[in-house]
């Protein structure tokens, strides 16, 4: 393919994507009204999920992911995530993701909880439903994936799982493979930290213009396993609203407004190990440099469809057209 044709195809893809652009335990007290908050929220939960459910040339696929995780501020949680994807062809696809927290700990909403009951267990909490429209294009120089994503406010804003608003984001992902080593870079802009990295599920949600960046690399290991290490930066643009249950003295804060409240940066380390054609074990460790918190998790993903050999060869060949 000639260079001019490649550039034209990439520009057309970017333009097309740009245009396309649960039950809670009962509590004793009601949330307090919004107040200003100077301190940043807790660190996000990073949930490793495959960015692509399959390499099938076209058609529907789905997966279920069970995750156990630990966050240094709020302790242990378990999460079940259902993902679905439809591939129109080698270039365009759409997907949806719906998470449910089977168990998590959240700050108590009671005015004066006993010292041993500052965190309360919650079960069956849904998060926001995420949708994505994806386009990918590759040649010998680099691979590009553009994703326009948005959320439906199906989560609970009282405990930080939703802002209660529809949110949008557009992310550009570039990478190039050198043998077993693949460096990558991501640049995006949106109006919520919830979509800054769609593999991250957070225990708080922000609302407000936000730019986000990520750079790092992945390394192919034995038996189709892979290790990825990335540095990330979430950089708010102006005022942000934070939806999270936090305690400041005797005041319960459920919504806070301020500048740079959702700013965060740090490192994400992920390991993915295929156990079979359908089953994948993955784990991660994330360190927030700004918030001084640590998160770790292990996930088991079952993918319903795997590509037949002819589909796999077709997709590999498409990368070099």
Describe this structure in words.
The chain is mainly beta and 321 residues long. It has a single domain, classed as Porin. Helices cover 8% and strands 52% of the residues. It is built from two helices and 19 strands. Strands 2-3-4-7-8-9-10-13-14-17-18-19 form a twelve-stranded antiparallel β-barrel. Strand 18 and strand 19 form a beta hairpin. The protein is globular, with a radius of gyration of 20 Å. The N and C termini lie close together (7 Å). The C terminus is likely disordered.
Strand order of the largest sheet: 2-3-4-7-8-9-10-13-14-17-18-19
CATH topology: Porin
Domain count:
1
Radius of gyration: 20 Å
What is the general shape? globular
Arithmetic mean pLDDT: 76
CATH class term: Mainly Beta
In short:
This protein is mainly beta and 321 residues long.
Protein traits:
Porin, 12-stranded antiparallel beta barrel, mainly beta, disordered C terminus, 321 residues, 3-stranded antiparallel sheet
